[in-house]
Amino acid sequence: MSELPILVVGSVAIDDVETPAGRRPESLGGSANYFSVSASLFAPVRLVGVVGDDFPEGHVQQLGERGIDLAGLEQVSGKTFRWRGRYASEGADAETLDTQLNVFETFQPKIPAQHRDTPVVFLGNIHPGLQSDVLDQIDAPRFSAADTMNFWIEGERDALCQMIRRLDMLIINETEASLLAEEKNVYDAADAIRALGPRIVVIKRGAYGAIIFHPEGLFVVPAYPLRTVIDPTGAGDTFAAGFMGSLAEQGAFDFAALKTAALYGTVMASFACEGFSMDGVINLERSDVEARVERLKEIMSF
Ligand code: AMP
Predict the structure, then answer these.
(1) Angle at which helices 186-195 and 174-181 pack, to 10 degrees?
(2) Pocket of ligand 1, candidates 11, 175, 176, 203: which has the most ligand atoms within 8 Å of its Cβ, to mutate?
(3) Distance from the CA of 227 to the center of ligand 1, in angstroms?
(4) Which band of pLDDT confidence, cut at 50, 70 and 90, is reported for residue 165?
(5) pTM of the model
């Protein structure tokens, strides 16, 4: 395992998700939750977030048992963040039916002193003001990246743009990239987002894979071929976890390292889609990941 730890801030949630495969109320979710479980296969992870007193104690314990550092995870009285969403058909974007910020409404992230020099930072999907608060408390990370979603693009555009300006890389899905950039074409959208600040933009295209837009050029990775998609919730966070985890493990952030990282992100996301909530990733072993990476390389070779 690498010596480069990753600090992640994001939501830790209780979700209620409906897909064509069924419905799972009261399931574990949240961007930081998905991210830390998956990234812990690659590098040491430090989780920053908040949960209420309704959050299952067993899950906090499970995160700790995976070696995830929970010094930055606050437990306060009140209700945990809740999200309810639905996917109308396979491949459709999530439709948000309800978002209750609950304990996140008053959350003020406090980065423990021993975590301020964390070299790799991932700002998972959460209020962009909180993402900036975290960046303010880290001394010059070697690499910083973030994700966001339509909820914040529509509701907190100014705070989001201020945060994005400070990043090395933004990871975003295609629909949200178009919404943020006000450009329909994916290449125009990526240019417009890079003009907002980040040198690198990764655009996720669901079953069509992902594109890295880098100053040295483009890299296109297909999605891992999947016949069964049970629940895509968390696929984006799990993609980011494989991607950032691989970079931290490589200890490198150049274009070649980013290309390798894109394969790991793609493979991790494929596992996330195969079960509800965290079912697809919670029991994964590194050898399962390597087998899919090899298969993906085969598919990509020319
Ligand atoms: P993904 O499918 O990778 O985009 O991530 C889905 C997760 O994001 C779910 O587990 C939700 O709990 C969480 N989520 C949904 N809406 C928000 C929001 N507005 N802010 C933060 N997290 C959210």
Answers:
(1) 60
(2) 11
(3) 24
(4) very high
(5) 0.96
